């Protein structure tokens, strides 16, 4: 089934009456528009949690990274989240990659979720990108051999206050660092059917949580995602004082994501020098430019010397065939004749 929506009227699906256009609250829109560069600077760090069952069994990992990046030559934030593990010996996981501007507006996002069951697999991919004033969304769901595709586009004018799977992780970091949340924080998002629905954030207050060997004070944020076709989904997250995620759980699920070790602290005596976000992003852009120049230069050199790839390929094949215990000694002996040949050629030139 494929659905294409391209007008600016409220979106609906075949067989359903047109629904009232949902909007984010004024409080939510104000919060997003008032995000300061210095606040975003504090959010650029990684998180790493362990996924645990009710009985404490390690089921997998959950990681989030936020960094300055560039998309279409414009500075932005890149958020990447990965959750991988196994439930009842069935591998499963989720990967999110999102490019966001300074107001957490999604420029592009890719979401992938999978479960590998015995005999068949389940996959869901959802990609959204801004194109010509529209948010174009393509969703592909694969269950065994059956593939279902759905495509929808919404004008950006109706998506003010949009919070996605990627941007919500960064939004909660900002809220947690502020240690306070205004009331009526209602945003919009997409449900499983790609309908526009409300998602609300509320404060859970302060709590105590054991992290590592210490009992730490944490700040809680609850997110509820409503749905047209199903029941609401509720997530509860608790954050340390520095914004690091301490725990994350979907209400009703027996699985919990927990931070088992405190993030490394800055060494005492070294004060962090503040930087403006735009300046950091400019430096990041220069770094990426230089990186691309080096990649092009290296690729050009390899094209001019095809013998390099042949030499490395032969070495790796020989290494894997022999499987030596001392790899360094094996490598030295393998390349020693080449060094002898070079010495011989140099001696001839000196004559």
What does the model show?
It is a single chain. The chain has six helices and 14 strands. The model is unreliable at 1-18 and 265-279 (pLDDT under 50). The protein folds into two domains: 26-275; 286-350, no CATH class. The protein has 351 residues and is an alpha+beta fold. The chain is globular, with a radius of gyration of 26 Å. Helix content is 26%, strand content 40%. The chain has helices at 26-33, 37-41, 167-178, 277-304, 307-322, 327-350, and strands spanning 47-52, 58-71, 74-87, 90-100, 106-117, 120-131, 134-143, 146-155, 185-190, 196-211, 214-225, 233-239, 245-250, 256-258.
Protein topology:
Elements: H1 26-33, H2 37-41, E1 47-52, E2 58-71, E3 74-87, E4 90-100, E5 106-117, E6 120-131, E7 134-143, E8 146-155, H3 167-178, E9 185-190, E10 196-211, E11 214-225, E12 233-239, E13 245-250, E14 256-258, H4 277-304, H5 307-322, H6 327-350
Kindly state the percentage of residues in helix: 25-40%
Number of domains: 2
| Proportion of residues in β-strands | 35-45%
Oligomer: single chain
- Taken in chain order, the helices and strands follow as HHEEEEEEEEHEEEEEEHHH
**Measured on Cα atoms, how large is the radius of gyration?**
26 Å
What's the arrangement of strands in the largest beta sheet? 8-7-6-5-4-3-2-1-14-13-12-11-10-9
Quantity of strands, as a count: 14
**Could you tell me the mean pLDDT?**
83
Shape: globular
Distance between the termini: 79 Å
Q: What's the helix count?
A: 6
Protein name: Ciliogenesis-associated TTC17-interacting protein
Domain Ciliogenesis-associated TTC17-interacting protein N-terminal: 28-254
Function: Plays a role in primary ciliogenesis by modulating actin polymerization.
Keywords: Cell membrane, Cilium biogenesis/degradation, Cytoplasm, Cytoskeleton, Membrane, Nucleus
């Amino acid at each position: 089934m494929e659905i294409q929506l391209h007008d600016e009227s409220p979106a609906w699906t075949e067989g359903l009456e047109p629904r009232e256009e949902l909007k984010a609250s004024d409080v939510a829109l104000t919060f997003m528009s008032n995000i300061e560069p210095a606040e975003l600077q504090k959010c650029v760090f990684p998180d790493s949690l362990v996924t645990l069952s009710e009985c404490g069994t390690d089921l997998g990992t959950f990681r989030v990274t936020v960094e300055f990046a560039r998309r279409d030559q414009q500075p932005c934030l890149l958020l990447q989240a990965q959750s991988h593990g196994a439930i009842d010996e069935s591998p499963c996981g989720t990967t999110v990659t999102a490019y966001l501007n300074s107001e957490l507006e999604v420029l592009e996002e890719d979401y992938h979720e999978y479960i590998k069951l015995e005999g068949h697999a389940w996959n869901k991919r959802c990609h959204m990108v801004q194109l010509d004033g529209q948010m174009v969304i393509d969703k592909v769901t694969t269950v065994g051999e059956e593939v279902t595709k759905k495509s929808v586009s919404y004008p950006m004018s109706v998506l003010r206050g949009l919070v996605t799977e990627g941007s919500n992780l960064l939004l909660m970091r900002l809220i947690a660092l502020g240690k306070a949340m205004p009331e009526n924080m209602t945003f919009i998002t997409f449900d499983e059917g790609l309908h526009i629905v409300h998602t609300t954030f509320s404060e859970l207050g302060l709590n105590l949580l054991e992290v590592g060997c210490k009992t730490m004070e944490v700040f809680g944020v609850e997110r509820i995602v409503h749905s047209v076709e199903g029941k609401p989904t509720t997530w509860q997250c608790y954050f340390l004082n520095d914004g690091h995620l301490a725990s994350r759980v979907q209400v009703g699920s027996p699985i919990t994501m927990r931070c088992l070790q405190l993030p490394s602290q800055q060494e005492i005596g070294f004060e962090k020098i503040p930087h403006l976000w735009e300046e950091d992003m400019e430096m990041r852009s220069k770094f990426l430019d230089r990186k691309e120049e080096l990649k092009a230069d290296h690729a050009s050199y390899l094209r001019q010397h095809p013998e390099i790839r042949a030499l490395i390929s032969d070495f790796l094949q020989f290494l894997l065939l022999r499987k030596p215990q001392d790899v360094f000694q094996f490598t030295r002996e393998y390349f020693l004749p080449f060094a002898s040949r070079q010495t011989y050629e140099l001696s001839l030139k000196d004559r």
